[in-house]
């Protein structure tokens, strides 16, 4: 079955510092991988997704992620944090049992705090 | 264009009561889904639908029923609420499947006492 592990339930950075949120995946089939962001009291919205077209994926708000098959990782980065980046971030992999295109398996989330 | 609308925003139930969480979308999306979000657990898929009349189970379907009579609506029913169903529930939709960007509603916070 497909799964993702997000390392670190809480990451704190200073404004202007590098943001690095870690995600490792497990998949029995070539995966589609996603990063979603949740701002307080809102639903999730898609930041970016990997579909095997390119290993470095650029998303919205200056975020990007690199797919590394050898490390089974899909870490999310942003060169310079902004106060507005404070939110909870979720990594997700397509599949569930059987590799369905209709199921996403989410990680437990990483809360990003940005300090002035 | 309202996107995905969930009602109610908040609900308190007593154990054993039933209720329906409503979800409606105006984007003509074929795929709709329900997730529950619990602290430290991420989001877990309850049920999903790939079109009117077609539903299937997700990761945690027990205690929940769904139906899809129209493209626009995908209600989630709790037949006999239990404290373990205290959670925040999100409805999400996309044009075709979970590989396309999911559009989420703002959630329903349910407390079962």
pLDDT < 50 stretches of chain A = none
Major pleated sheet of chain B: 7 strands, mixed
**Biggest chain contact:** A-B, 24 and 26 residues
Instruction: Kindly report how far apart the N and C termini of chain B lie.
Output: 36 Å
- DSSP strand tally of chain A: 11
Largest sheet of chain A: 6 strands, mixed
Portion of residues in beta strands of chain B equals: over 45%
Radius of gyration of chain A: 14 Å
What is the chain-wise order of helices and strands of chain B? EEEEEEEEEEE
Strand content of chain A: over 45%
In oligomeric terms, what are we looking at? heterodimer
Overall average residue pLDDT of chain A: 92
Mean pLDDT of chain B: 95
**How many distinct helices of chain B?**
0
Would you tell me the structural class of the helices and strands of chain B? Answer: mainly beta
Helix-and-strand structural type of chain A: mainly beta
Overview of this structure, please?
The complex is a heterodimer of chains A (116) and B (113). In chain A, the strands form two sheets. In chain A, strands 2, 4, 5, 9, 10 and 11 form a six-stranded mixed sheet that branches. In chain A, strands 1-3-8-7-6 form a five-stranded antiparallel sheet, with no helix packed on it. Chain A is an all-beta fold and 116 residues long. The mean pLDDT of chain A is 92. Chain A starts with a strand and ends with a strand. Chain A is built from no helices and eleven strands. Chain A is globular, with a radius of gyration of 14 Å. Helix content of chain A is 0%, strand content 58%. By secondary structure, chain B is mainly beta. In chain B, strand 4 and strand 5 form a beta hairpin. The model of chain B has no long low-confidence stretch (mean pLDDT 95). At the A-B interface, strand 5 and strand 10 of A face strand 4 and strand 5 of B.
């Amino acid at each position: 079955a497909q799964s993702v592990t997000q390392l670190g339930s809480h990451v704190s950075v200073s404004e202007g510092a590098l943001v690095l949120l870690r995600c490792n995946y497990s998949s029995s089939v070539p995966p589609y991988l996603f990063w979603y962001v949740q701002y307080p009291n809102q639903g999730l919205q898609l930041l970016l997704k990997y579909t095997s077209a390119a290993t470095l994926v650029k998303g919205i708000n200056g975020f990007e992620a690199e797919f590394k098959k050898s490390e089974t990782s899909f870490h999310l980065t942003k060169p310079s944090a902004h106060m507005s980046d404070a939110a909870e971030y979720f990594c997700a992999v397509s599949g569930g049992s059987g590799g369905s295109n209709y199921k996403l398996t989410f990680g437990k989330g990483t809360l990003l705090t940005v300090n002035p | 264009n309202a996107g995905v609308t969930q009602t109610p925003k908040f609900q308190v139930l007593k154990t054993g009561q039933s209720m329906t969480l409503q979800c409606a979308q105006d984007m003509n999306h074929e795929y709709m889904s329900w997730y529950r979000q619990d602290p430290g657990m991420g989001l877990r898929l309850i049920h999903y639908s790939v079109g009117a009349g077609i539903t299937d189970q997700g990761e945690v379907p027990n205690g929940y029923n769904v139906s899809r009579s129209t493209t626009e609506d995908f209600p989630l029913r709790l037949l006999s609420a239990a404290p373990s169903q205290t959670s925040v529930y999100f409805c999400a939709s996309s044009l075709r499947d979970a590989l396309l960007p999911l559009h989420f509603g703002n959630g329903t916070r349910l407390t079962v006492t």
